[in-house]
Amino acid sequence: MSKIITQKIYDKSWNEVEKEWNDVFNSFFYNRIFQSPKVKKIWWKYFGKGNQYKILVITYSNNKLISPLRVQGKTCSFIGSTDLFDYEDLIYSNYQDMDLGLEKLVNFISNDLFVEELRLNSIPDNSPTIKKILKYLEQNNWQVDLKKEDVSPRISLPSTFDEYLFSLSKKNRHEIRRKIRKLDKIKNVKEYEFFKYQDIKDNLDDFFRLLRISSDEKKEFMNLSRENFFRDLSLELSLQNQTRLRFLEIGNKRVATSLSFVTKGTKYLYNSGYDPEYRDLSVGVLNHIFAIKNSIYEKNKVFDFMRGDEVYKYRLGGIDETISKLIAHKR
Predict the structure, then answer these.
(1) Is-above-0.85 flag for pTM?
(2) Residue of 112, 113, 39, 105 lying closest to 76 (CA atoms)
(3) Of the N and C termini of the chain, which has fewer Cβ atoms inside 10 Å?
(4) How far, in Å, CA of 219 to CA of 122, rounded?
(5) At what angle do helices 15-27 and 37-47 cross, to 10 degrees?
(6) What is the mean pLDDT of each run of 10 residues along the chain (331 residues)?
């Protein structure tokens, strides 16, 4: 008996597919925060101009696959961008019988979109998407190039902060304790997180201030469009209790900050900043240490530093997860 496979294409009204997309996103642990319809919709608001979206919902064997695609000229890619989305992927209800959905998806891209290039960026290597989709792309006469894009260090969190410290090398454990002791000698030190909508709205300006003064690179990165995206994203996700806005304060002055999102037991460290005048106290790293400690207290299972191989991530226990990109051209 053949399996019934159906597809629906949404390219006019995002609202028509949002509930179904959200249900599929929430149903499976391996769907990451950047695959949610709320995050994609905010990105589209600020950066979708000049693109056309094609959201494909494929149903097969009582499972669903959602493919949030954008088309710009002759190129097809995920809705999103590597400067703002650390992870991309298809959205699955589960991985069972996924070949059926992937074959249908590739047939749609190959025959109905009239594109010549396919760019799928930032797919985690623990996702089966890339390995599985290659076969169907080659069957449809695509030349495929698969490359490592970046790394995303992550920590598997234990149940206590002491266990976390003892999971580190002796040298790194000693260095963290030394930094904390040095900070403890200073009077009037506070570290805290906001998670309620109004608190986040009222305190985001300090986040952007500290981010911009951290480095010239971050100052250049945080233009008005990205700032507006960050604001909308932080406030929207706070309505689901997923936003964490953290500060480290010394003498009533905020000296370090970070913005994180929490979902499905993972805390994603999205961006951060600190005051260079307090560099000798390692306030940026300490703010991350306190974020890890709070993540353990919240009983999260993973602390995700996200893309980039900065040294401090490894000193704090990060272990690389590779993310890859697939670029295919129609023969």
Answers:
(1) yes
(2) 113
(3) N
(4) 24
(5) 140
(6) 77 90 95 96 96 95 94 97 97 94 96 96 94 95 96 98 97 97 95 98 98 97 98 98 98 97 97 97 98 97 97 98 97 92
